[in-house]
Each structure stands twice: as structure tokens, then as C-alpha cells.
Design a protein that fits this description.
alpha/beta; 6-stranded mixed beta sheet; 29% helix
């Protein structure tokens, strides 16, 4: 039996899903994060990665043909020539790049995706000010570095993670304007998501009982992995990820981008996955309610009745989409004494932000919204689903598979000899393995083989 492993690194923890050739789940493993200090965040990721692998039953590990990893978009780090982090990572919502936006605006095209305080490129430019930058050899996304730990090649990314670094996903190359920044370290070589990079490092395969020919593939971002897991495949279909944050993805025939509104498009074969990510979402709800309270209080809400409370729920100032304003203040007042009323107001307010997001995408030229699949923890809240359906006026259904790790496992399946379910086949095109293309020895392209310590 051929099996495939997808690993998801989200904001609240890491997850692994093993699927078979029929895309049926054979095993699921989890590793919750306990808010480690940012300076040791990368070590925590590494610990989580190998904990997940070790928790997969041994008899299943022997049958895994390919592995892929997703990470949070624009979570980045600098590493040295051996792949060791030289400073603390910058997380997806770190807005320190705001201080370099004026310099970036002088080079990047107007309203480009990188013109955001949280983009990968703005983070990289900010990081050049760090005293440790002199030790840096590579700039990597979270998924890039975790993949490196498994296959041993530095400087490799996928075009989903690299979008906010400035990579041109239409022309499949770095644009000329990016060269004007004279970035002194190696940018990743960018490949399609799910492309086999190399076999699993032999010492890892031996230690954990994997096949010696198990492939490690390029990954994707967590929200795109959730989209892939949903089964959505037609223009007009969308996925809302209701996790710690709110992420909208609408499949469209038209590519749209405008940094003024935090809107960007990812490439998916001949179609475009257009959308944006808001800092509102489940993390705000969990600031006020436990999971048990969210479940019990939601049952007391009448979803057909609109709440009169008008909030903009944020943990701290700043949002990315549909309002891109790093100084946007949270709005959580007035707070009623009744917890049911307060939760109702929060759920309705997040639903309104979701509606504004989809309205903005369609106004800018994306296909008309026809159906919304829901992923993330919020997908299980039937009351919230009914509220959102009232606003969106299209069917809102929970994805059959809501775990981003499942979507990433489908990418791993795609990477192994092009095997893939029908809806994945419609989204992606096959690519050859890097080993078949002779990656070894291509020092000038940053594809030098490096063994992690």
C-alpha cells in the first residue's frame, strides 16, 4: 500500500495526516504549541516536526512514498550556510516591515502584494538591519526550512510561499525590479507546490523506519492547503478558513492584486486563487471564551436574528484585509453583561468582515461567489455557519476534510509519479523531480547540497 504524509504548521500547533492511494485518512497526529518564546521558535518547530513523525505508527511509516509540509504565509527566518537559524523568526503577523515600506515603494510596482508591513519581502529588508544579518546565507519561509530538515537542500521554496517575497507567479521568475534592491543573500529557488525535491535524508529514514526512496516535496501555505483539502475546484467556489485568523480564498479565472486592500492571487494551474487574510478570527474568540463556552453559548444564539452590536474584533491594532491598515484599532465595545449577546455580536461582526472581503474580491473582478466551503475550527460551529450563510447568501458548507495537513498530503500524493485525485489534477500541473533534473552540483543556482547539523 502506498501512503502519503502531509504536515501542517499552523498558529496553534502542528498536525500530520497520512492518506492512502484512495485519499482516505490512515492516521492523524498532533502537536500543540505552548507559546514558546520567539527566540527559540525554530527549535520548537523542529521538535514538533520529529515528534509528529515519531507518532505515526511504524507499520505506516514503512509505506510512505512522499512527504510535503505547509507553513503559515510570510513566517520567515534567516539561516547560515549550514541551515542553522541565525536569529529569531518573524511570524506571519509581524508588522515591523512597516518601517521599510517607503523604501520598498520606490522600487516595487504600485499596489504590489509585497507592499505590506507583513509581506516576506518587507520582513527581509527589515532584517538586513539586524547585527546578525552578516552571518545569513539564505532567507527561507517556515515550510522551506522544515522541508530542508528532511531533504537536506537549502534555498528551495514553492510559488505559494514565495508570492509575498515578490516572485512573479505569472512569469514564474523573480522580476527585474527586485534586483534593484541588491539583496546580498540567496533568495530561494522557486518551484511549483508538490514538486519532489529529493529523497528523505538517509539518517532520518533509517532512524524512523521510512523507505529509503521516500520523497520530500515542496510545500505550500496553510490556507492554500486548507483550500486543496476542501474539494473546491470550480471558479466561484471559495474556502473560508476560520482558524486563529480569517482567510478567504476564491477560485477565479481572473488574477487580481491590490496591496491597498491586502488582496493577492495565488496561481493554481490555469486558474487563480484570489483572496486575503484578516487578523480577526478564532484567536479573538478564545480571548474571551473557552472552547466549551463557545460550544454551549453558541447553542443559545438565534442565528436568524441579527445582532445590533457592531465590532471589529482584533487582538491588537492592525489588520490586513479587507482593510489594510497596520494601525486599525480593535472595536470591542460596548460589551453587554450577557455572554450570549456578546458572543453573538462577535460572530456576526466576523461574518460581516467575511462578507466585505468577498464583496471586495468580486468588485475587483473575481468570479461571482457561488459556494463557500469552511475549514478550520470554526467550521464545526453550526450557529456561526447559519449566521454566515445569512450574510453571504450562498450555500455555506463544512469541507469534508478541514485539516490543512490533509490538503498537504494530497500535494505529496501529486508529487509521487503524478498521482492525484481529480480535483487536484484540475488545480496543478505535474513537474519532474529535481534529482532527475540534476540539482546536485548547481552551486550557482543556490541548490547546494547541505546536511543539517
Amino acid at each position: 500500500m502506498d501512503l502519503y504524509l502531509g504536515i501542517d504548521f499552523g498558529t496553534s500547533g502542528a498536525r500530520g495526516v497520512v492518506i492512502d492511494e484512495e485519499a482516505s485518512i490512515q492516521a492523524e497526529v498532533r502537536y500543540p504549541f505552548e507559546n514558546p518564546p520567539v527566540p527559540v521558535m525554530a527549535s520548537s518547530w523542529q521538535e514538533a516536526l520529529f515528534f509528529l513523525i515519531e507518532q505515526i505508527p511504524e507499520q505506516l511509516r514503512r509505506e510512505i512514498r512522499a512527504i510535503a509540509i505547509n507553513g503559515t504565509s510570510s513566517t520567515v527566518l534567516l539561516v547560515d550556510a549550514a541551515g542553522q537559524p541565525i536569529d529569531a523568526p518573524l511570524l506571519y503577523n509581524d508588522a515591523r516591515g512597516a518601517s521599510v515600506l517607503d523604501d520598498l515603494k520606490s522600487v516595487a510596482p504600485s499596489n504590489h502584494t509585497v507592499l505590506s508591513a507583513t509581506s516576506s519581502l518587507s520582513k527581509l529588508i527589515w532584517m538586513q538591519q539586524l547585527p546578525s544579518f552578516a552571518e545569513a546565507r539564505y532567507f527561507l519561509h517556515q515550510a522551506d526550512w522544515l522541508g530542508f530538515l528532511l531533504h537536506g537542500y537549502l534555498g528551495i521554496s514553492d510559488y505559494h510561499n514565495a508570492l509575498k517575497l515578490g516572485y512573479d507567479v505569472e512569469e514564474l521568475k523573480y522580476p527585474q525590479w527586485l534586483q534593484k534592491l541588491e539583496i546580498p543573500i540567496q533568495l530561494p529557488r522557486v518551484l511549483p507546490p508538490g514538486t519532489p525535491v529529493a529523497e528523505l535524508r538517509s539518517e532520518i529514514a533509517d532512524k524512523y523506519g521510512f523507505r529509503p526512496d521516500c520523497l520530500v516535496c515542496t510545500g505550500t501555505t496553510d490556507s492554500i492547503a486548507a483550500f486543496v483539502a476542501s474539494g473546491a475546484k470550480l471558479p466561484g467556489e471559495a474556502v473560508t478558513s476560520l482558524g486563529s485568523t480569517l482567510v478567504l480564498k476564491l477560485l477565479s479565472c481572473t488574477r487580481i492584486e491590490d496591496a491597498r486592500y491586502g488582496v493577492y492571487s495565488h496561481r493554481l494551474g490555469k486558474l487563480w486563487l484570489t483572496g486575503g487574510a484578516s487578523n480577526t478570527g478564532g484567536a479573538v474568540l478564545q480571548q474571551f471564551f473557552t472552547n466549551a463556552e463557545l460550544t454551549s453559548l453558541s447553542r443559545e444564539i438565534n442565528p436568524s436574528k441579527a445582532s445590533e452590536l457592531d465590532y471589529y474584533p482584533l487582538l491588537k491594532a492592525g489588520d490586513r484585509f479587507p482593510i489594510n491598515d497596520p494601525n486599525l484599532p480593535p472595536r470591542l465595545e460596548p460589551r453587554p453583561d450577557n455572554s450570549v449577546e456578546f458572543l453573538h455580536g462577535l460572530l456576526e461582526s466576523i461574518a460581516r468582515i467575511e462578507l466585505k472581503g468577498y464583496e471586495l474580491l468580486q468588485k475587483m473582478g473575481a468570479d461571482k461567489l457561488t459556494r463557500v466551503y469552511t475549514a478550520g475550527g470554526g467550521a464545526a460551529n453550526d450557529t456561526w455557519t447559519a449566521i454566515r450563510e445569512r450574510y453571504l447568501k450562498v450555500p455555506v458548507i463544512a469541507s469534508k476534510y478541514t485539516e490543512a495537513a490533509y490538503g498537504t498530503a494530497l500535494l505529496a500524493m501529486r508529487g509521487y509519479e503524478g498521482k492525484q485525485p481529480e480535483h487536484i489534477d484540475k488545480l496543478f500541473t505535474g513537474q519532474r523531480c529535481l534529482q532527475c533534473e540534476g540539482i546536485r552540483g548547481h552551486e550557482d543556482e543556490g541548490d547546494r547540497e547541505v546536511t543539517p547539523k
